[in-house]
Amino acid sequence: MKPIKILLLSLVAIILTIVLALFVLPEKITNPVLGATPKDWNHATFWYEPWGKSGVHKGIDIFGKKNTHVVAPVNGVVVFSGELKRGGKVVAILGPKWRVHYVAHLNSYSVSEGDIVKLNENIGLLGNTGNAADKPPHVHYSIVSLFPLPWLATSESQGWKRMFYINPHTKLISQ
In what helix (H) or strand (E) does residue 128 lie, and over which residues does it extend? Predict the structure, then answer.
C-alpha cells in the first residue's frame, strides 16, 4: 500500500476510535453551581411552556448567590465560551456520550474554546446576564445530545426537539 493510503486509513481509524470512545465513556455529572442542592431549582421547569421567546424552557435554572463558583458539570472540552443575546455569558462543554452541557447567565467565565476541563473545575461565576438581567442570579443548565434519542420525542408542543434534550434534574438527582 502507498504511504498516503496507510496514513489516511490510520487517521480514519483514530477518528473512529475517538468517536466511539466518547459514546462509551461513563458520564459522571455534578451540579454546576457549587454548593447548590435540588432545593435551589424548580424540578418542573424542564420543558415548561410557555417560556418567553423560546416557547419551551429546555433546561433548569439553578439559583444561588451572585458570584458563586460555577464548575464543569462533566469532564470535557469547551466548545464555546462567550456572550449570546438571551444567554448572556455562556459556556458550553462537549462531554461524554456526545452531549453538550450548556450553562448560561454567568457573571463571568474563566475558560476558552478548546480548553479541556475536569469535573468540578471552576469555569465561571454565577450571575444574571442576558435575558436574566432583571431576575435573581442563577445558571440556566441544559444538556443537549448531538445525536437524536428518538424515544424521548413526544407529541407535545416542540416535542420532536425533546429527542435532543436531556432533563438535567433527572441526571443530577441520579448521581
Answer: none
